[in-house]
């Protein structure tokens, strides 16, 4: 039960929509209506007249800066980034040296007809709705950030110095990208840009000894929260992109969602976290369960943690196939498709330790699929599960529990 890639985190008392866990980001022009501005009318987001905010300028990708600084944090910008989408960073000289070497993702690499549209969602404002059937493993978005801010700026620089720097940084974005960024909801009072960042950023570590940043991905911010989401996300630091993938079949007309917090926490803790960090009361189907059903769900989550602890203990002589089947059943009953990788990995390893090569191969393949969805091809367990699936009897775990 972990959020290995869940970069939703709160930083130094600053709540962030995709600032929520303490773990330490589609790259195409935003489709019409996805990037339009919104009015806030009595707490309800309403779309303005939609317009295509695609940047039509042909601008070469070239970094500029440093511009204005606050101590060691300076503005760097690239108006041609990602085929003219543009990006601005407030960071240190050392981190910028790393940032400029990262591989740039082209907007030409993605489907120009996205499988979703923007629409009002009762109780949530605007959300993304599937416009066709989607299946587990389907890619949804590959998005570069519009704004990247060094964590140190938000944690150590006083607002009186920080806010003018943020305002100036945003002016370095192309007009279309700037409007898309400013159209995002800000849940906190005060400075507009700071509120948007406090509501809509993901943690990103770009590398180096001081590489911790927060990235704002305006298109991704349209994905609302659900404690049992149908979309997983991960951050690809090598290409500076936020990638989302469908984790279960989705019907046309169904809302697409990610989770902002740890889905494996009990309901009361999840709801407290949502209120504390993002200022909303979670109304997803899992949190709306009747008290008796919610208590049953919480007991399942506790049992899942207990079983996983036993499976990770190679000295536990009581592990058997029934326990493995029970863990898989619990995950399915809890609709935890968004984080199956770790569970399937433990199940595959333990079937192999029990000398059941057939099930070891079955679950190693399922584990690899889930790990890639959740963490990408480069995730360590992906290769490990490929090796187990290929030659279970040659794996170091073979019959380890029956010797």
UniProtKB/TrEMBL annotation:
All residue ranges annotated as the SET domain in the record: 114-261
Kindly give the InterPro entries that the UniProt entry links to this protein: SET_dom (IPR001214), SET_dom_sf (IPR046341), SET_domain_protein (IPR053185)
Pfam families according to UniProt: SET
Does the entry feature the keyword Signal, yes or no?
A: yes
What span is annotated as the signal peptide, if there is one? Answer: 1-20
Q: What keywords would UniProt list here?
A: Signal
Q: What is this protein called?
A: HET-domain-containing protein
């Amino acid at each position: 039960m972990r959020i290995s890639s869940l970069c939703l985190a709160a930083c130094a008392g600053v709540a962030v929509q995709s600032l929520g866990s303490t773990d330490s980001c589609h790259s195409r022009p935003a489709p019409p209506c996805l990037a339009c501005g919104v009015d806030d009318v009595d707490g309800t987001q309403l779309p303005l007249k939609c317009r295509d905010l695609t940047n039509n300028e042909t601008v070469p990708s070239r970094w500029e800066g440093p511009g204005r600084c606050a101590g060691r944090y300076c503005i760097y910008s690239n108006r041609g980034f990602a085929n003219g989408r543009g990006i601005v960073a407030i960071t240190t000289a050392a981190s910028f040296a790393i940032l400029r070497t990262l591989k740039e993702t082209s907007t030409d690499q993605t489907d120009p007809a996205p499988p979703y549209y923007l629409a009002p969602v009762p109780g949530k404002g605007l959300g993304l709705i599937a416009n066709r059937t989607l299946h587990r493993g389907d890619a949804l978005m590959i998005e570069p950030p519009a704004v990247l801010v060094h964590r140190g700026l938000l944690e150590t620089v006083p607002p009186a110095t920080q806010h003018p720097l943020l305002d100036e940084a945003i002016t370095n974005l192309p007009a279309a990208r700037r409007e898309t960024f400013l159209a995002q909801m800000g849940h906190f009072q005060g400075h507009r840009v700071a509120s948007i960042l406090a509501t809509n950023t993901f943690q990103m570590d770009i590398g180096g000894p001081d590489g911790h940043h927060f990235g704002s991905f305006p298109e991704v911010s349209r994905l609302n929260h659900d404690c049992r989401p149908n979309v997983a996300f991960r951050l690809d630091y090598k290409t500076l992109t936020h990638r989302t993938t469908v984790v279960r079949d989705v019907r046309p007309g169904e809302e697409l969602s990610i989770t902002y917090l740890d889905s494996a926490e009990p309901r009361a803790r999840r709801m407290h976290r949502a209120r504390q960090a993002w200022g909303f009361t979670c109304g997803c189907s899992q949190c709306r369960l009747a008290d008796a059903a919610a208590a049953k769900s919480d007991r399942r989550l506790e049992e899942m943690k207990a079983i996983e602890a036993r499976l990770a203990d190679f000295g536990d002589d009581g592990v058997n196939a029934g326990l493995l089947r029970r863990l898989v059943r619990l995950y399915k009953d809890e609709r935890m498709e968004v984080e199956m990788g770790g569970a399937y990995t433990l199940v595959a390893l333990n079937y192999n330790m029990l000398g059941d090569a057939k099930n070891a191969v079955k679950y190693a393949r399922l584990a690899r699929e889930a790990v890639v969805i959740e963490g990408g091809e480069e995730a360590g367990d992906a290769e490990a599960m490929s090796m187990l699936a290929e030659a279970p009897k040659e794996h170091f775990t073979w019959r380890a529990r029956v010797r």
